[in-house]
Amino acid sequence: MPVFEYKAMDMDSSSAAGTVVADTPAQARELLRGRGLTIMQLAKAAKANRRSLRLGLGRKARASHVQSTEFVGELATLLEAGIPLMSALGTLARQHKGKFQTVVKQLGDRVSSGISLAEAMSEHDAYFDEMAISIIRVGENTGSLEHALGRLAEFAEKAQQLRSRVTTALIYPAIVALVGVSVSIFLMTYVVPNLLGTLGKAGKELPAATQIVKSISDLLRNWWWLMILAVAGVVVGARMILQTDRGRFAFDKFSLRVPIIGPLIRKENTSRMAVVLAALLQSGLQFVEAIRITRQTVPNRVFRKALVDYEAAVTAGRDVAGPLEASGVFSPMVVQMLAIGQQAGQLEQMLMKLSKAFDQQVSVATTRLTAVIEPLLIVMLAMLVGFIAFATILPILEVSNVL
What we know:
Elements: E1 3-9, E2 15-21, H1 25-34, E3 38-44, H2 47-57, H3 65-80, H4 85-95, H5 98-112, H6 117-122, H7 130-142, H8 145-201, H9 208-222, H10 224-242, H11 245-255, H12 261-282, H13 287-297, H14 301-316, H15 321-327, H16 332-344, H17 347-402
Antiparallel strand pairs: 1-2, 1-3
């Protein structure tokens, strides 16, 4: 759809400029007049600008989960207060800044042109995923948009908290590891060569530990470029393998077997599956459509395959316990609760109970993971730096003893 650039004056005689999405210049002018703007200049955006707009807001853009979560919650609050949709979008467009402000403005333009909010959001899939669009579409069709947005905001907040909890648990260990590796590289490439240079000229044989450290130091100083190329090659090769279905499935299956990390991944995927499927079913989506959308939100491919088998069993009217248990990714408790919920017609309630239970388990698991990794990293880095220091000082002590 064409993008038009405009310059205008608002009701306060202040200048305003920006872009508007419309089929024709006449429609663009009508949209701008609806905002209370007096149009001074209107022209179709140049190709370069339209290209940059697509790159900034398209599928490959790095959308902010925080911004979209805040937007959904704020829009739900405004609609529940009785504010019309267009007024609510206009208020939020003035509140947000940057690229997301442009997104909100374009949502308002498209809704005012007559299309639904869900359809307008589908044009910005970098910010609004299929689950959010589906819930909002059902809410619009049933006349309960504010309730649908409320449920979506509640889910988005839970998902954001889950991501933040896992990320926060890994930040401190990552910082400690980065600092430790940086200090070790500095010691090996600057301190060790300067200290051992004089001793090497004396012709005295160095201790075994010192020779090991010196060899590694020489390797880092003389062949650093080759090591960088090797690391880059491994990273590129790993990314290419993970982009294939077989490679990603094998990696996800292996990750579930890793001690400490595997159980955390299993619980996080189970919690995400339960809360997403419950939110979709409570919004009124059909089971098959809800399962399809849920599969896309679960990052682990092994879990996705298990959900495919689960959907097939339910669609065929078979017992769901067998396929769920055969997948090997769900615990006996999860299998039993899903089977009972399906048979009793209370699947949404069972899913919410599972979500709460596993959300608490993820919280406990991340706390334990941090408690294990932090001291382990500190001890390992202390041993590494201590070995380098010992190997560097050892020949100096031996020379002092001889003297």
